[in-house]
């Protein structure tokens, strides 16, 4: 007996220490025990994880098929009783209540008579119950019981080893998972990539079909970043929801549950919060753990634990990435700001290169549309016209590749790359005229988006400027809006970025000042030019006045004695006999006096006995008046007069002087046609580059002016005639130019000459009132086209 | 015989005019200024007056005004070395404005015209 026992024990130890798998070892142990005790069956019931039920795991007859997996709740049947009391016990079928309590064992052994139960436990852990079954009523000797207890211990030891090994395997697996996670998390600081790796790795580690992560701002509760992987059957619960879910004491907060989708499939999820130090909160959520057979499984506490561990790692990594991203964003922002400020500085420098308004506007527009500048697709400057209370398009430009790559300063001062015509824009300054007018009226910028109301989206914009988004900045000088700058990115469709708009706003103040200064400068320049002109005219007129007063003074002094000399010479001539030699002498005196008198008259005319009698006169009337003066001469020479004198507006001129011009021209015509001809007189309005004129064309049929003298006809004292001073045309031209008019000659050799006198309808005029010297005309009318 | 008054401060002019007009068959009275001219106008029933403009004591324009005031129907011719007074309102009261010339034909034909000869 003793040898048998020793052999059994030896075999048991051999099995226990063998290197075969735990399952085989346990099976062998149970099998050995049954054989040694010569019982029909040896069964092992293991306590489940919930510690509520004992399930048949091992049988001395080999593997247990599923339908024979008998169960006993704790406290029921012999199995349950032994598990509860942790003491061995033997019962017989014949004993009352035994069969009823253990009826399910009949499935394994229909004719069992004896049942013996032994707890399987070691020093600190209970594993299950060993049951021996036999068809006969059996009683076990103390030695046998001892052996069974020993077998139980070995069984417990093996189970413990198996558990430990399983645990170790799991830990190793978990560690490798965490290692993978750690590796993934530390591989990058790019937030997007990181988040993607986090959700991917998390889903894989937990064997979930999907995973999602979101981080929200703790203050605004808005989602800052999110990422997901795999199949996401439902939304990710927010951290607040998780934190509000009640959990058992000592447990970290989590939210776990299931939902049945529309197709009737149950989905599981598990979410844990991510806690950041700052004002950020987040959630990581996994969905649908899948079993090897494709079933979806609920998540267990171990998954939760793992998710927590990962959450800790993830938080740190994300926090790093977020900080890095923030730093990066700040650095980028700084870089952009520095770039924009540099643009602003170079632009300011370029604006110092000129005071011409036109050029300044070009530089400004260049700065706004150059790629190396602020890079808007299009920019337009509109200025306020105070007189008409409208906003007028002045200059526009659009982005062009022409100056790309050139240094900014060089590109800025280069001629405008691509101009946009905006000159016909006119927007009345009323609040119902949209953003451009409002910008001026309210002296504040407008950022117009496609969502802005139509009343703001500027009803006054021409269709080619109707961009979905545009920005208007006011040009403000001394609290007065002098215009606007409008920019858009219509061509490329890019949204308007914040920074260039910010720079534009900073710049618009300077632009306003610069444009205003240029404007003032050009006004001053124009005024200066005007003053200079007036001064010149006044000097000339003063000189003329002095000259004429000297000349006329002299002339008058001379005239009286000349009259006496000439008069008495005539008287003497009458008294002297025809044959007397004195006669010739007296005639010389007479002729010379006549010549002197004529010269005197012409000199007086030329120096302008009276400088001006300006008034508004009808040019046709002056022509008619003058014609009357020469009527006798015209008739004497048999000259036909043809008149084309349509009604004309009155002209500001000195009627006497203008009559003198016509008189001189008529006289010339008479002399050219002393054997008859036609004098054609036409008057007509005439538009020239610098404004409106009235013109008179006087045509004769006197054969024209010989070419060799043509260039001399306006020279004073030049004459082809035997009589006269040669001052006629010179005087006429002088008078015409005094009126800021022009005199032209159309010479048709062999036919005749046309003199065209054109006089401006309104110009700066000098008026000399008799006895008061030169003075400015009371009506200083600006020439046409000068709006400023 | 028609009576003509010639007022001129220049003695040579007075002499020339009186010689010429006498030759034409007029009775000629002479004055050296406006004042003297007015005195004669007050005494003698004249047919025509020829006035110089620039004269001492009283100029021809003032004399013209006073003559026309008293005897609006008496023809008064202005004969002057100055062309510009033609524009003067005050000279418009005169019947003729003549710029002095050594050729007295203009003057004599004007005189004839006004004396309706």
Number of strands of chain A: 28
Helix content of chain A: 40-55%
What low-confidence regions of chain B span 5 or more consecutive residues with pLDDT below 50? none
Summarize the biggest pleated sheet of chain A: 7 strands, antiparallel
CATH topology call of chain B: Rossmann fold
Mean pLDDT of chain A: 82
* Subunit arrangement of the protein: heterodimer
Please, what is the CATH homologous superfamily of chain B?
Answer: Response regulator
The strands making up the biggest β-sheet of chain B line up spatially as: 2-1-3-4-5
Structural class of the secondary elements of chain B? alpha/beta
Tell me the CATH superfamily of the domain at 2-168 in chain A: GAF domain
Write a structural description:
Chain A is α+β, with helices and mostly antiparallel strands. Among the domains of chain A are: 2-168, 2-Layer Sandwich (Beta-Lactamase), CATH 3.30.450; 187-326, Beta-Lactamase, CATH 3.30.450; 610-776, Heat Shock Protein 90. Chain A has 17 helices and 28 strands. In chain A, α5 (142-186) packs antiparallel against α6, α5 (142-186) runs parallel beside α8 and α14 (619-636) runs parallel beside α15 (655-672). The longest helix of chain A has 78 residues, at 498-575. The N and C termini of chain A lie far apart (135 Å). With 117 residues, chain B is α/β, with parallel strands linked by helices. Chain B has a single domain, classed as Response regulator (Rossmann fold), CATH 3.40.50. Chain B contains four helices and five strands, in the order βαβαβαββα. In chain B, strands 2-1-3-4-5 form a five-stranded parallel sheet, sandwiched between helices. In chain B, β1 (3-7), α1 and β2 (27-31) form a beta-alpha-beta unit. In chain B, α2 runs parallel beside α3. Chain B starts with a strand and ends with a helix. The model of chain B has no long low-confidence stretch (mean pLDDT 88). Chains A and B meet through α12 and α13 of A and α1 of B.
């Amino acid at each position: 007996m003793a040898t048998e026992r020793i052999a059994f024990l030896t075999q048991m130890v051999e099995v226990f220490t063998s290197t075969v798998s735990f399952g085989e070892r346990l099976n062998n142990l149970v099998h050995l025990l049954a054989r040694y005790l010569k019982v029909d069956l040896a069964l092992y019931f293991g306590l489940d994880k919930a510690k509520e039920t004992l399930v048949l795991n091992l049988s001395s007859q080999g593997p247990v098929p599923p339908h024979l997996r008998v169960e006993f709740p704790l406290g029921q049947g012999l199995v349950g009783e032994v598990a509860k009391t942790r003491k061995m016990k033997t019962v017989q079928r014949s004993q009352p209540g035994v069969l009823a309590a253990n009826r399910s064992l009949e499935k394994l052994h229909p004719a069992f008579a004896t049942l013996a139960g032994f707890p399987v436990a070691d020093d600190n852990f209970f594993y299950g119950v060993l049951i021996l079954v036999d068809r006969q009523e059996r009683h076990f000797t103390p030695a046998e019981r001892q052996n069974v207890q020993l077998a139980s211990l070995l069984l417990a030891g093996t189970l413990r080893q198996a558990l430990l090994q399983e645990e170790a395997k799991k830990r190793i697996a978990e560690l490798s998972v965490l290692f993978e996670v750690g590796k993934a998390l530390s591989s990058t600081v790019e937030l997007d990539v990181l988040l993607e790796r986090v959700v991917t790795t998390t889903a894989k580690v937990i064997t979930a079909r999907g995973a999602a992560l979101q981080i929200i701002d703790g203050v605004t509760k808005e989602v800052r970043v999110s990422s997901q992987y795999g199949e996401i059957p439902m939304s990710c619960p927010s951290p607040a929801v998780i934190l509000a879910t009640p959990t058992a004491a000592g447990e970290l907060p989590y939210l776990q549950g299931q939902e049945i989708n529309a197709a009737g499939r149950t989905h599981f999820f598990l979410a844990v919060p991510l806690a950041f130090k700052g004002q950020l909160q987040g959630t990581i959520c996994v969905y649908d753990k899948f079993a090897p057979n494709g079933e979806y499984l609920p998540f267990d506490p171990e998954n939760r634990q793992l998710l927590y561990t990962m959450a800790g790692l993830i938080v740190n990594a994300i926090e790093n990435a977020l900080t890095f991203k923030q730093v990066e964003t700040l650095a980028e922002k700084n870089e952009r700001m520095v770039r924009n400020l540099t643009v602003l500085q170079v632009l300011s420098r370029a604006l110092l290169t000129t005071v011409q308004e036109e050029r300044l506007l070009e530089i400004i527009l260049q700065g706004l549309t150059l790629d190396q500048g602020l890079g808007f697709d299009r920019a337009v400057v509109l200025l306020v016209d105070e007189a008409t209370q409208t906003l007028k398009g002045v200059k526009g430009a659009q982005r062009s590749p022409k100056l790309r790559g050139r240094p900014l300063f060089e590109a800025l001062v280069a001629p405008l790359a691509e101009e946009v015509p905006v000159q016909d824009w006119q927007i009345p300054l009323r609040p119902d005229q949209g953003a451009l007018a409002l910008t001026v009226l309210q002296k504040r910028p407008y950022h117009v988006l496609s969502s802005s109301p139509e009343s703001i989206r500027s009803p006054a914009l021409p269709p080619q400027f109707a961009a979905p988004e545009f920005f208007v900045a006011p040009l403000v000088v001394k609290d007065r809006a002098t215009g606007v700058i409008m920019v858009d990115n219509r061509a490329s469709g890019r949204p308007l970025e914040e920074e260039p708009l910010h720079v534009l706003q900073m710049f618009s103040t300077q632009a306003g000042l610069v444009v205003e200064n240029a404007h003032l400068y050009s006004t001053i320049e124009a005024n200066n030019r005007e003053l200079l002109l007036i001064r010149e005219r006044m000097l000339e007129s003063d000189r003329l006045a002095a000259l004429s007063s000297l000349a006329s003074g002299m002339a008058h002094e001379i005239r009286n004695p000349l009259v006496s000399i000439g008069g008495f010479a005539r008287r003497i001539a009458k008294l002297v006999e025809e044959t007397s030699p004195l006669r010739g002498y007296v005639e010389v005196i007479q002729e010379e006096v006549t010549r002197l008198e004529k010269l005197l008259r012409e000199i007086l005319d030329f120096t302008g006995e009276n400088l001006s009698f300006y008034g508004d006169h009808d040019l046709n009337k002056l022509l008619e008046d003058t014609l009357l003066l020469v009527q006798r001469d015209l008739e004497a020479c048999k000259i036909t007069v043809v008149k084309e004198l349509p009604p004309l507006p009155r002209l500001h001129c000195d009627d006497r002087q203008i009559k003198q011009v016509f008189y001189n021209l008529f006289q010339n015509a008479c002399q050219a046609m002393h054997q008859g001809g036609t004098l054609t007189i036409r008057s007509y309005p005439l538009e020239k580059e610098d404004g409106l004129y009235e013109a008179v064309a006087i045509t004769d049929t006197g054969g024209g002016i010989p070419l060799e003298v043509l260039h001399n006809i306006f020279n004073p004292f030049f004459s082809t005639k035997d009589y006269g001073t040669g001052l006629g045309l010179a005087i006429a031209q002088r008078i015409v130019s005094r009126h800021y008019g022009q005199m032209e000659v159309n010479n048709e050799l062999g036919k005749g000459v046309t003199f065209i006198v054109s006089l401006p309808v309104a110009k700066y005029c000098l008026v000399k009132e008799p006895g008061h010297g030169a003075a400015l005309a009371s009506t200083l009318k600006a020439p046409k086209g000068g709006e400023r | 015989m028609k009576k003509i008054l010639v007022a001129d401060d220049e003695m040579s002019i007075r002499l020339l005019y009186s010689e010429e007009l006498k030759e034409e068959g007029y009775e000629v009275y002479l004055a050296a200024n406006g004042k003297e001219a007015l005195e004669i106008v007050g005494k003698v029933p004249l047919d025509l007056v020829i006035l110089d403009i620039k004269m001492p004591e009283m100029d021809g324009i003032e004399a013209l005004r006073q003559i026309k005031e008293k005897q609006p129907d008496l023809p008064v011719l202005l004969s002057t070395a100055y062309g510009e007074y033609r524009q003067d309102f005050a000279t418009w009261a005169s019947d003729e404005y003549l710029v002095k010339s050594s050729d007295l034909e203009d003057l004599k034909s004007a005189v004839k015209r006004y004396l309706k000869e």
